[in-house]
Amino acid sequence: MSCPHSNYRAMEEDIHTDFKDDMSYGDYLQLNQVLSAQQPLSDQHDEMLFIVIHQSSELWLKLAGHELSVAITNIQQGDFGHAFKVISRVKQIFNQLTQSWNILSTLTPVDYLKFRDSLGHSSGFQSYGYRKLEFLLGNKNASLLKVHESDPVVHQELTQILEAPSLYDVTLKVLHERGLHIEALQLNRDFSQPYERNDSVLNAWLNVYQNADEHFQLYELAEKLIDIEDSFQQWRFKHMYTVQRIIGNKMGTGGSSGVGFLKKALDISFFPELFELRTHL
């Protein structure tokens, strides 16, 4: 019998231990597949870090895409309560992704260069999860689909998301349905094209903010969208800065200009009028 102050913790009698004919934790999560997917191509110790960070990031991106797709449906159906819940979750996912760059930053330039050539032309630029996320948020660019032509299933899904209304597009439709004027051309535009700032949208949002009590749901939705862009941009910035810290101004493995290319993304706003209106309040 252990003494009262021992670190020993006895197994409780009711804890299940026989999984010959029962589903275990590992079975449910398919951990044999997940934990066998880390296959370094070099003998360098730090390649495992590089793989795990990027694989886990792809899982978080998958979840963010799942949640944003539901948020779009919620807004279309007028279910703002659930939309707010999942949008708040997406914000926390981006915060988690931002934190992951701090772990990757422990990879020194010298150690990365020991296995960088093993990556060939593979690059985060080819991330299906990231592209899906950007399209859902409204950063549409049909030319980027070319990167995914080698996978017909992925290419088809991304094409459908490209051509469908984004999170912001469905939000603007709701503004119009609530009696706030949005130009018809803005509501019926080609959704595969990048969103462009519009005066009628700016004025509609100004009305919402100046009459927040009357339009409180729309006001809260707007602030949720700001939360998403804020956390997303912090993730983008940390990505750029981590790449700069590790490879400087070298070209990316996928052929991009590297840090220069990533910096350009920081100038892209998903919801431009929501930031502009602050100047006019």
The largest sheet is:
none
**N to C succession of SSEs:** HHHHHHHHHHHHH
Q: Strand share of the residues? A: under 5%
How does the overall form come out from the CA principal axes? globular
Mean pLDDT: 94
N-to-C span: 71 Å
Total of DSSP H or I helical runs spanning 4+ residues: 13
Q: Could you estimate the helical fraction of the residues in percent?
A: 55-70%
The radius of gyration over CA amounts to 23 Å
Number of strands: 0
What structural class is derived from the secondary structure elements? mainly alpha
* Poorly predicted runs: none
Describe the structure.
The protein is mainly α. It contains 13 helices and no strands.
Summarize the structure.
This protein is mainly alpha-helical and 281 residues long.
Question: Layout of helices and strands, plus pairs?
Answer:
Blueprint: H1 25-29, H2 31-34, H3 47-77, H4 80-104, H5 109-113, H6 128-137, H7 152-163, H8 167-177, H9 184-187, H10 199-210, H11 216-247, H12 259-265, H13 272-280
Supply the key terms.
281 residues; 0% strand; globular; single chain; 59% helix; mainly alpha
